Amino acid sequence: MNLINALMNNQGNLTVESVNASIPLPPASLQSFLKKDLSIPGLLISNHKNAFTNQFYNNEWDTFQTISSSKLSKHLAEVAQTVSAAIYKLATRDEMPTNIVANVTLLESILQCYLVNANCTLFSWLLNGRNNLATGSILPTYVGVTHGDGAYKALSLRTRHLLAMVSGDPLDINKTACINSDHNEIYHYYWMGEHESNNSSGTCYRSTVKTSYAVSPAFEIEDYDWASGEYSSWTESRWETFSVRIFLKASSLQAVSIFVFGVV
Questions:
Q1: Which of 28, 81, 141, 200 is least surrounded, with the fewest CB atoms within 10 Å of its CB?
Q2: How far is CA 169 from the centre of its chain?
Q3: H or E stretch including 260?
C-alpha cells in the first residue's frame, strides 16, 4: 500500500483525491529535493487543485477574522487524523486505535496564539510564565536571513517548544536533572509548564525537535560558484530603529521680511 491509497482509505469526513500528474507542483519545500533528484518520492497535501480556494489568499483580508475559527480547527483536526491514520497503517500494517484522536481544543488554542493573541495561556505555559508580550499582540511569521547574533525569533522559539510538547515524551525528573540532561544529536530536553511562584512545578519533555539557522548553503560551501545560481544568495537590509525628520520651509514673504529687517 502506498501513501496515497492509505490516505484515501483513512479519509474519514474528508474528500481525498489524487490530482493529475500534468498539474504543476505548487511552491513547496519538496521542490528543493526534486532539483537534486526527480526520482525522490514526495506527496504534497493541499486543499485545492488548479486554483486556490481561499478568496483572501495572500492579501490584507487573509486574517483570522475572515474565517470561522471553529470550522478551521475542526478541518485541521480531520486532516491530522487522516494523515496520522495513514502513516500508522504504513508503519505498523495495523489500523490506528480508535482512542487516538486529534485534539480540537488544543488546535483552537494554537490558532488563537498564532493569529489573535500571542500573549496567550499556551505560550506562557511553554515558556514557564515568561511570555512577556502585550495583550493582543501578533508575532510576525517572517523569518528572514540570519543576523549572526545567535538569537531566536520570538515565534520560532515558541514554535520549537510547542512541537517539543506535542511530539516529545514527558519524563518524571525534576528541573535540575532536565536542564543538565545530555543534549545530543537525537534528543533535546525542554522544561515547560513551570509557575513563577513555584519553581518545582513543570514537566520535562524529551524530544527530537531541533532548530537550525536560516542560512543558505551558498554561504557555507567553500569556494562556492556564485554564478551557478544553485542556491539562493540574496541578502536583506537591516534597520535597528525607524526615524523620521521633518523640515519646514518658510514662505517667501517671511523670508523677505527677515532679510529686510536684518539689513536694517
A1: 200
A2: 21
A3: helix 252-263
